[in-house]
Amino acid sequence: MKLFVLTVIVVVLCETGVLFCSCEKNEVFHLALNGDNTISLHWILNYSEDEATLEIHLPAGFGWFAFGFSDRGEFYPADYCVLWRTARGKYKLMDTHADAEGVLGIDKSQNCNGFRVKTRNGVVKFTFKRKFDTCDPLDYIIEEGTTHVVWSRGFEMVPSIRGLNISTETRENHGMNRVTLLKNLDANTELPRYVTTLDLSTDKVRVPPIETTYWCRVFKLPKEFHKKHHIYQYEANIQDTSEGLVHHMEIFHCEADPDKEIPLYNGDCFSPDRPQETMVCKRVLAAWAMGALPFTYPEEAALPLGGEGFNPYVMLEIHYNNPELKSGFVDSSGIRFHVSDKLREMDAGIIELGLEYTDKMAIPPGQELFSLTGYCISSCTSVIRCRLEEGDFSSLCVLADD
Questions:
Q1: For the whole model, what pTM was predicted?
Q2: Pick from 347, 365, 395: which residue ends a domain?
Q3: Are 154 and 207 in the same domain?
Q4: Within this chain, do residues 219 and 171 fall inside the same structural domain, yes or no?
């Protein structure tokens, strides 16, 4: 019986195009490393061994490919596992580090272990295991929270990667992504059968060949939301070809009188043509960033949507990140809500704390230490204090957005 179960698992993973198999947990996480998803990361977690198995897919024809981690998203200094092809066509993998000039050195302690590689249909897939903490001072410690993953590639054949300078590569041959590598494998994301879905997505947006685009689309909720619903869960609904393009998304409620009509704007968020009426669409209902899993509310609470006195207009905002300045992207991504008119015991809520994105927040150059302080005004704290004293809040969940 055990042999049969393991065989089924291997077949399923092979059919998805991934080389590895995990007998502890079978969930495979994915991240597009470039805009058109031709370079991608896949990984599984083994908490009993404190290690991750990582797999990279990329087009064949390169001379070397470096994948790794850095403290702040810089390409060097950084910690890399480097794959390169010898003159005889054999692939090798080495644990390396890039110094402040981008020059690679080979680590004395090799911690990119369990190397496997396979080429099929013009795609190279290579796999290795990496401890969360290798105890090597030259290696990055994989911890909870945001990890900056970096990659770089070159097409020249090299006899050795020692002394290779990765700082000379062009824009399309390196990249950086922010991702939460360590996931909660025990999260319960199952939903009752009576839950329905609500998709709020863009429709064939032609993303311009510039690095940063914010796209806004206003929706009017279906008439069934005249009745109050609860959002049990929400998740990203990313078009396959846009996994490396969509950086983050938010859904905002348009806070206005319930009978107020809001124009169904669909365009650049910062366009002068954006109607002034849409500026009231600013109360966060959902937020997602690249690499995040579905957000599930606890069984006793959920976020309210619709009902008496609720303006039926909401707005989707998508940040497209196109550092390679590629053209031809057409996207229909968005956020999917799982909702029900079967209300839970308590309403959940969202509180936003932070500072505006303005030029005055910039850190002046050459500062050894710089303090930036934000204040919550009394009209805000008095409301929070009153609600807490009334006992309306049973818990507080904090989501950080950088």
A1: 0.74
A2: 347
A3: no
A4: no
Residue 149's SS3 state is: strand
Range of the domain at 108: 19-179
* 11 pLDDT above the threshold of 50: no
**In this structure, what DSSP letter does residue 294 have?**
P
Domain count of the fold of the chain = 2
Q: Is residue 121 part of a domain?
A: yes
The alpha carbon torsion through 86, 89, 91, 92 (nearest 10 deg) reads -20
What is the model's pLDDT at position 386? 57
> Which backbone phi and psi does 123 adopt, to 5 degrees?
-120, 130
CA-CA-CA-CA dihedral for 96, 98, 104, 109, to nearest 10: -20
Average pLDDT for residues 159-183, to the nearest whole number?
Answer: 89
Q: Which of 324, 347, 370 is the last residue of a domain?
A: 347
The listed range with the strongest mean pLDDT (10-14, 23-27, 125-129, 378-382) is 125-129
> Within a 10 A sphere around the Cβ of 129, how many other Cβ atoms?
18
Burial group, residue 340, by CB count within 10 angstroms (0-12, 13-18, 19+): middle
Task: Report d(CA 292, CA 143) in Å as an integer.
Answer: 15
Q: Is residue 223 part of a domain?
A: yes
Under DSSP, the state recorded for 52 is E
Contact 54, 267 (CB under 8 A): no
Q: Contact at 8 Å (CB) between 161 and 82?
A: yes
pLDDT digits (tens, 9 = 90+) for 289-321: 987 889 999 999 999 999 999 999 999 999 999
Query: What's the mean per-residue pLDDT of the chain?
Result: 88
Which range, 170-179, 227-236, 361-370, is most confident? 227-236
Q: How far apart are CA 282 and CA 296, in angstroms?
A: 22
Instruction: Give one DSSP letter per residue of 100-143, joined into a string.
Output: TTSBEEE-SS---EEEEEEEETTEEEEEEEEES--S-TTSPPP-
Structure tokens at 226: 């005249």
Identify the CATH number of the domain in which residue 312 sits: 2.60.120.310
pLDDT digits over 318-364, tens only?
Answer: 999 998 898 999 999 999 999 999 999 999 998 777 767 777 778 88
170 in the same domain as 80: yes
103 and 133 in a single domain? The answer is: yes
- What residue ranges in 107-240 does DSSP mark as E strands? 113-120, 123-131, 147-154, 174-179, 196-201, 205-206, 212-220, 229-237
